[in-house]
Amino acid sequence: MKFFTKTLGLIVLAVFALTLQAQTPPAGYCASYASSTFDEEILYTQIHTLGVSSNCSSTGGAGSVLNRYSNYYGMFSNPNLSGGSTYYGQVNWGQCGSSSWSGGFRTYCDFNHNFSLNDASELLYTSPYVSAPPSGVGYGYNFFVPTGYSSSTTLFRALAYETNPTNITSCYLGSWGETEDFSVNYVSACGSAPTFVTTLPATSAANRYCDNAGKKLLTVTSPAGYTATWSSSSSGVITTSGGNYYVNPGAVSLDPTTGLGQATITMVATSGPCVYTVNYTFYVKCCGSDIAQVLGAGNDGKADYYTITFNCKNTSYTYLLTGGGPVTFTKVNKVLMVNHNCNNYSVRITACCCPKNFNGGTSCKYDGSIATASLTCYPNPVNEHTTVSFTTAMGGNIETGIYNVNGQQVMQLFKGSLAAGETVNLPLEANLSAGIYFVRMVSDNGENVVQKVMVK
Question: Are 417 and 396 in contact (CB under 8 A)?
């Protein structure tokens, strides 16, 4: 009967809670909460000088959910826990409802303030596995505060659940029970943190390094009596070579919408049991973007579209028309065709982690005597079998070449005089580096006739 009743309650309450409420732990910490509002409830928690009582009708501050999770972090005067000292703690728990079931509790504290409760000495106490009567049951215990960490305000967590307490982890998600979070002050036995010097580049949210700025040497000067070094950072942000450390701006993940990013570099200074950490934030912005807009021509005698291309590993991109029209877009892999038909437009494209704005539509012009010429490039993407072919509509002097996204000619394919209706097939015999190119035909009056995108 217990299984049916509690399962039904779990389903109904879980749907309601997920729709209207969210359990939000202190920033940086994992979530822990019950999925049901029935049964086990923490009624009293003591941490040294702090004692907090609650009942089935009360809960904590922001992020709390009644009978499931109570966030008391920052709500009370923090008890001071000094490294090397022993303190008293206590947890009383009972239940919200008429039934009593077996369970227990555990307490944890993040002494080194690394946003994990799983380090050595951070599991403070595991209660016996007992049945909780309606009036509640409590256990007191003594816990030792380790030395060797920097002073900080950090997390204390108490968890009481209907399970063998040896099953209760620091991020436990249970069916029946409650988690309570508190803030405490860890007071270092090592004194004030030393000052150590690095050659890390000075960056801020307003003064960012370019993502293509190249690697920067990182050196660390240890204070007297300490050994200082780099400890950790996001993957690839710090690299080593020849015994030196380097900061790599290009390895910092950028927001594809803003083109901005940041990474945390953790430095560590040690002296015996004393360990101090300093977090350095490295700010980066997107500076180098292989995104180019090239004027193209349609078959109506006017240059009435733009080809926006980008050359980077990412093939996924977004675009947004911000003004003008009517304009149509054709989206293909690494290429966006903007068919403006001589209408003004403004488009924002996000690719290569760099957003970029383009405007166009006012450069409509006649293409010259061979505006209806055809031009193909197949197969495309390019391989050793690719052939560029074109047929003239009218006679004249024709020049055909391959250009990069910066408008520089990298290969001349044909230059000469042709009669109307002549077809020329040009196998690509030279190797091209990976990238995006344009095959362009130019008539004798110097105007662009046709451009095709070619990907290698």
Answer: yes
Q: In Å, what is the CA distance from 134 to each residue of 3, 104, 161, 406? A: 20, 14, 15, 77
Residues with Cβ within 8 Å of 242's Cβ and at least 6 positions away in sequence, in order, are none
CA gap 280, 203 in Å, rounded:
10
Strand segments, DSSP code E, in 225-379 are 227-233, 238-241, 244-247, 260-271, 274-285, 291-296, 305-310, 318-324, 328-332, 335-339, 345-351, 354-360, 374-378
* Residue predicted with more confidence, 34 or 237: 34
CB 93 within 8 A of CB 42: yes
pLDDT of residue 215: 83
Residue found under tokens 């004194």: 191
CA neighbor of 453 nearest in space, from 377, 379, 364:
377
Model confidence band, residue 179 (pLDDT cutoffs 50, 70, 90):
very high
Q: Is 50 exceeded by the pLDDT of residue 176? A: yes
Cis bond upstream, residue 133 (ω within 30): no
DSSP code for 280: E
User: Can you give the pLDDT at residue 289?
Assistant: 60
Residue 385 amino acid letter: H
Q: What's the pTM? A: 0.43
Token reading at 160: 């009481």
What is residue 128's predicted lDDT score, i.e. its pLDDT?
93
- To the nearest whole number, what is the mean pLDDT of the chain? 77
What is the dihedral sign for C-alpha 196, 198, 203, 208?
Answer: negative
| Cα separation values, 380 from 124, 269, 376, 454, Å | 65, 56, 10, 6
For the chain, which domains are there? 2-187 (2.60.40.10), 197-285 (2.60.40), 290-366 (2.60.40), 369-456 (2.60.40.1930)
CA distance 286 to 111: 38
Say if CB 117 and CB 108 are below 8 A apart: yes
- The Cα–Cα gap between 81 and 121 comes to 14
Distance between CA atoms of residues 249 and 137, nearest Å:
55
More confident residue, 132 or 168: 168
State the pairing for strand pair 238-241/244-247: antiparallel
CA distance 218 to 201: 8
CB 133, CB 41: distance < 8 Å = no
pLDDT digits (tens, 9 = 90+) for 257-308: 677 888 888 878 777 667 777 777 888 888 766 666 655 544 444 445 566 6
